[in-house]
Specification:
The complex is a heterodimer. By secondary structure, chain A is of the alpha+beta class. Helix content of chain A is 39%, strand content 17%. Chain A folds into two domains: 10-142, PH-domain like; 156-183. The longest helix of chain A is centred in the last third of the chain and has 21 residues, at 160-180. Chain B is of the alpha+beta class. Helices cover 54% and strands 17% of the residues of chain B. Chain B is built from seven helices and seven strands; from the N terminus they run αβααββββαββααα. In chain B, the strands form two sheets. Chain B has a four-stranded antiparallel beta sheet with strand order 1-2-3-4, with no helix packed on it. A three-stranded antiparallel beta sheet of chain B has the order 5-6-7. In chain B, a hairpin with a 2-residue loop joins β2 (119-123) and β3 (126-131). Chain B is elongated, with a radius of gyration of 29 Å. Classes of the chains: A alpha+beta, B alpha+beta. Chains A and B meet through β4, α3, α4, α5 and α6 of A and β4, α6 and α7 of B. β4 (86-92) of chain A pairs antiparallel with β4 of chain B.
C-alpha cells in the first residue's frame, strides 16, 4: 500500500498531463475489490472490469480530453476544455487506501452522471488544477469585463489596438503640421 | 465541573479524530484553489449553527427511537414477568441497551466528522466544496459557468440562523437528487449550513452580473473584441477625430 498523493497543488510545476495515457495499475486492484463486493456476480463482474481496465485509454491534448473504453462495445468520449462545467474529484476509502482517485468532468449535457470519469489517477490535484486552468472563467483573458471595470482608465502597455490608434493620431498630427506649411 | 467534562470530551474527540483521520487517510488541511498572486482566497466551514442544527435532529431522533425501543422492551418484559419468565427479560436487557446506546454514539461521532470535513473555498473566480467522510468529494465550479443561485432554509434552519446556498451550472439530470446536498454528480454545488448565506449569494451574484457570457462555453474572442474598448481607447479615437477636423480646417483655410 502506498501513501496518497499530497493534497497541495505545489507539485504541478513538473506535472505533464499529456503523459496520462493509461490508468494506474492499482485500478485493477480496486476493480477486484469492487467485484468481490458483488459476492455471487464475482466472475462476471471481474471479467467486465478486467476488460474495462485493459481497454481504458486517455488522451489529453491542447484542446480537450478523450477517453476510449471497450472491445465489443467501444465507447469514445471527447470533450473540450472550454465546455467543462464543473470538475468533481472523488476518493472513497478504498481509493484512498490504494492511493487512487476519480476525476469526473461535466459538460452542460442533461445526463445525470458525469460525461467523463477519469479513473485511476495517482495525482488528481495536479490534473484538476490543469483542467481548472483550461476552464472558462479561471484565467485572466476570460474576465475581460471584470478587469476592464476594475482598472478602468489604465491602459495595458501591450494593447495593440491602443498603440495603433495612437500611431494614427500622431501620423495625422504630423501630416497636418508637416504637410500644411510648405503648400 | 461541566467545563472539565466539556474539555475532556473535546480532547477525546480530537484524539479519536486524529486516529480515524489517519486510518481513513482523511486530509487534515483545508482544500485550496490555484490563485494568481494577490488574489483573495477565502476558505471557511459551515457556521456554528450547523452543528447545533445537526445535533438538534440527532437528539430529536434519538429520543424518538429510543422511546420506541424502551416501550417495546417494557411491554415484552411485562408480559414475560406475568408468565413467570422474568429471567428471559433479564437476558434481553443488555442487547436492548446495546441497540439503544451504540448507534447513538456512532451517529454523534458522524455528525462531528461531517461538520469537520466540510470545507468551502471561494476565490474571485471560482469556488470549491469538499464534503464527505467515507467518500471525500470535491467540486470545483467557476463563477463563469454558474447559471443560478438558490438560497434555501427551513424553519429549523432559520431558528439556528443558517441557510443553504445552492449553486447550479447548466445541465440537468441529477440536479435534484439528494435533498441534503449529498448527491455527488449533479450539476450543482451546495454550500450547506452557512450563517452568512445572503452575503455569499451577493458575492457570487456580483461576479455573475459582470460576466458577459451565458455560461455555456461561449467563445470569448468576439466578446473580447466588443468589450476591450477602455476609456484610453475612446480618448485616442476622440483625438483622431479632432486631428482630422483640424486637418480639414488647415486644408480649407
Amino acid at each position: 500500500m502506498s501513501t496518497p498523493a499530497p493534497l497541495s497543488a505545489s507539485e504541478n510545476t513538473r506535472f505533464d498531463p499529456t503523459a496520462i495515457r493509461r490508468p494506474d495499475p492499482a485500478l485493477m486492484h480496486y476493480y477486484i475489490i469492487i467485484a468481490l463486493c458483488t459476492v455471487f456476480g464475482f466472475p462476471f463482474v471481474l471479467i467486465a472490469m478486467y476488460i474495462r481496465y485493459r481497454t481504458l485509454e486517455y488522451k489529453i491534448d491542447d484542446k480537450g480530453v478523450s477517453m476510449k473504453v471497450g472491445i465489443l462495445f467501444r465507447r469514445e468520449v471527447y470533450l473540450t476544455y472550454r465546455r467543462i462545467q464543473d470538475i468533481h474529484v472523488t476518493k472513497n476509502i478504498i481509493h484512498r487506501w490504494l492511493g487512487l482517485s476519480a476525476v469526473a468532468i461535466q459538460t452542460a449535457s442533461s445526463s445525470s452522471s458525469a460525461e467523463m470519469t477519469i479513473e485511476g489517477i495517482r495525482n488528481p490535484e495536479a490534473l484538476r488544477d490543469f483542467l481548472y486552468s483550461k476552464m472558462r472563467g479561471a484565467r485572466d483573458e476570460h474576465d475581460v469585463a471584470a478587469d476592464g471595470s476594475s482598472n478602468a482608465g489604465a491602459s495595458h502597455p501591450n494593447d495593440e489596438a491602443l498603440v495603433l490608434l495612437r500611431e494614427i493620431r500622431d501620423e495625422l498630427a504630423r501630416q497636418r503640421l508637416g504637410g500644411g506649411r510648405p503648400t | 465541573m461541566s467545563a472539565i467534562v466539556h474539555r475532556a470530551s473535546e480532547w477525546m474527540y480530537r484524539g479519536l479524530w486524529r486516529v480515524l483521520g489517519d486510518l481513513f487517510l482523511v486530509p487534515h488541511d483545508p482544500p485550496t484553489l490555484p490563485v494568481r498572486p494577490g488574489e483573495a482566497i477565502d476558505s471557511f466551514q459551515p457556521g456554528e449553527g450547523f452543528l447545533r442544527y445537526l445535533k438538534f435532529w440527532f437528539w430529536f431522533l434519538l429520543v424518538f427511537f429510543d422511546l420506541i425501543f424502551a416501550a417495546a422492551y417494557a411491554g415484552i418484559a411485562a408480559t414475560l414477568c406475568t408468565k413467570g419468565l422474568w429471567w428471559v427479560s433479564a437476558i434481553l436487557l443488555p442487547p436492548t441497551l446495546f441497540i439503544i446506546v451504540v448507534p447513538d454514539i456512532f451517529a454523534y461521532i458522524a455528525i462531528h466528522l461531517r461538520y469537520d470535513t466540510t470545507w468551502y473555498v471561494m476565490t474571485d473566480r471560482s469556488l470549491r466544496i469538499r464534503r464527505g467522510i467515507w467518500a471525500i468529494h470535491e467540486v470545483t465550479i467557476t463563477y463563469e459557468n454558474i447559471q443560478n443561485i438558490r438560497v434555501r432554509s427551513g424553519p429549523v434552519q432559520r431558528y439556528f440562523g443558517i441557510a443553504d446556498v445552492m449553486v447550479e451550472t447548466a445541465g440537468g439530470g441529477g440536479a435534484h437528487a439528494g435533498k441534503g446536498g449529498q448527491n455527488t454528480t449533479g450539476h450543482q454545488g451546495v454550500i450547506e449550513g452557512v450563517g452568512n448565506a445572503i452575503e455569499i449569494r451577493d458575492r457570487i451574484m456580483a461576479h455573475l452580473k459582470q460576466s458577459q457570457t451565458a455560461g455555456l462555453g461561449d467563445d470569448r474572442d468576439h466578446v473580447a473584441a466588443a468589450t476591450s474598448w477602455t476609456p484610453a481607447h475612446m480618448e485616442a479615437l476622440r483625438a483622431i477625430r479632432d486631428e482630422i477636423r483640424k486637418t480639414k480646417l488647415a486644408i480649407d483655410g
